[in-house]
Amino acid sequence: MNKLTILIFVVILITFCNSCDTLKTRDLPSGNYVKNEGDLETQTKKRMEPISKVMKTSIETIKEEDRITILFNLRNISGKDQLIHYGSQNYEMLINNEDNEEVYRWSTNRVFPMKSIQREFKNEEVLSYKETWDFKDVKGRHVSKGRYKIKVVMLISIDSENRSLSTEDLTATTVVEVL
Asked: For residues 59 and 129, is the Cβ–Cβ distance under 8 A?
């Protein structure tokens, strides 16, 4: 850089710094507006804690000879309308065997377009979904006899003071037996 470029940069930097409004103590209104560190730490921890009892996820299954139909839903139980956000994949379904090994993941080999959806979710409104599992693992092989845990996770978020929904509110599980 030549000296002229450096000089121009320094002048711009000084001008910018001088134009910034800096808050001075004498500019504060009277009264106790400053919180001590303990209060700020408590508020930060509270914001990071997930919100519970806002949504409820439920699951039920209907066993048929060659498959299981899985019915699941998400209900707004918050007592008020909520603004929810989700992508083109708004849920995931996982199936684990008795050794807690994942044998099936609904989203495997599926393509989801990049999009973001935002909508009002009315109080007590229900979003319902239906999937089937044909007793096959992700490689297309029939699973062995035994008990399998089906877990559904809703992939949504809400606007609520930068806090997230609790995993408990967005997850439902059930156990089925494959004969």
From this structure: no
- For residue 148, what are its two tokens? 């399998």
Distance CA 74, CA 173 (A): 13
Residue 130 CA: distances (Å) to CA of 5, 43, 56, 146, 152: 65, 40, 17, 23, 11
Q: What is the pTM of this model?
A: 0.71
- Residue 161, sorted as left (phi over 0), alpha (psi -120 to 50) or beta, turns out to be left
* HSE of 61, CA atoms in CB hemisphere, 13 A: 22
Look at residue 31 and tell me whether its pLDDT is greater than 50. no
Report CA-CA distances (Å) from 124 to 20, 38, 67, 153, 165: 48, 37, 31, 19, 16
Q: What's the pLDDT tens digit per position in 62-74?
A: 999 999 999 999 9
106-118 pLDDT per residue, tens: 999 999 999 999 9
